[in-house]
Amino acid sequence: MNNTADHDNKDGSFHGVKTNARILIITGWMTGIYFLIELALGFYSGSVAVIADAFHTFSAVGGILIAFIANRISSRAATSEATYGFKRSEIVGALLNGLFLLVMAVYVMYMGYTRLGVEFELPTGIMLLAAFGGLVTELIAFKLIFKQQKDNINMKGAFWHIMQTFVGSILIIVAAVVILLTGYTPIDAILGMGFGVVLLWASYKIIKDAFNIFMQTVPKEIDIQEVKRALMKIEGVTGVRHIHAWVLTSNSNIFSSHLQIADHAAGERILKEAEDLLKEKYNFYFSTLQLEVVHTQSVADEINI
């Protein structure tokens, strides 16, 4: 049996944990400060639209806080009780963020629905001031977090909270312009409900990805049959059984398998070739391979792939 891992991660900064934490701190402070400014503008003007967007901003602060806490916990080293460490806390954070987004999506759609057909006055000047201030804050946050969210599900949850506030600012500007030009106030509710649908889809994707990781399904970028064929092409390998591939956390896939070989004398060479294949071609973070000359019946044959 042989274990392989990426030893570059001994310092605990697993796929940029320290960098992600710094980005989340900066983004959280920026968003939190602007929440207080926007909320003050909302109460000063009496604008429900601006107050609602301020609470959307507050939800983003909560989302970033969840991501930050999960990020910090995930950097803890493995122990005899938690042999994988606490890497999965990032996935817990992503799941919580997905559920948070789901609640916000329902809230936004409900709020829009209740305002349809209701006449109310919206001070467009304050709306535009609040929206443009929000855009500046959110664009800076986007620049900080965009790259990290591509391959980190926890950061993706935080990213979508910022996206929520960004689109909310855009919608306030659109609504304010339409109201200024036409006086048609229901546009605010209509646009808000439309954005609620976008949030609903985003929350579904994050929850689905987190759920699949907890269920230890095969990473979506991995074709198990292709990996099996590649291992079978190694000289001396006569069979590949009990293939299992799953995600430990974002961008870190794990693989295990039994390799049936013709001769134990070639075992070290076969292990080396299999390790290199799994790491270099399929980017597995960690693999466990068991060599056997004769396959023995196992009580786990019902999960033998």
Please outline the helices and strands.
Blueprint: E1 2-5, H1 17-45, H2 48-74, H3 89-115, H4 124-149, H5 153-182, H6 187-214, H7 224-232, E2 237-249, E3 252-261, H8 267-281, E4 284-292
Parallel strand pairs: 3-4
Antiparallel strand pairs: 1-4, 2-3
Helix pairs in contact: 1-2, 1-4, 2-3, 2-5, 3-5, 3-6, 4-5, 5-6
Describe the structure.
The chain is an alpha+beta fold and 305 residues long. It folds into two domains: 213 residues, Cation efflux protein transmembrane domain (Alpha-lytic protease prodomain-like); 80 residues, Alpha-Beta Plaits, CATH 3.30.70. 63% of the residues lie in helices and 12% in strands. It is built from eight helices and four strands. Strands 1-4-3-2 form a four-stranded mixed β-sheet. β2 and β3 form a beta hairpin. It is elongated, with a radius of gyration of 25 Å. It starts with a strand and ends in a 13-residue tail after the last strand. About 4% of the residues have low confidence.
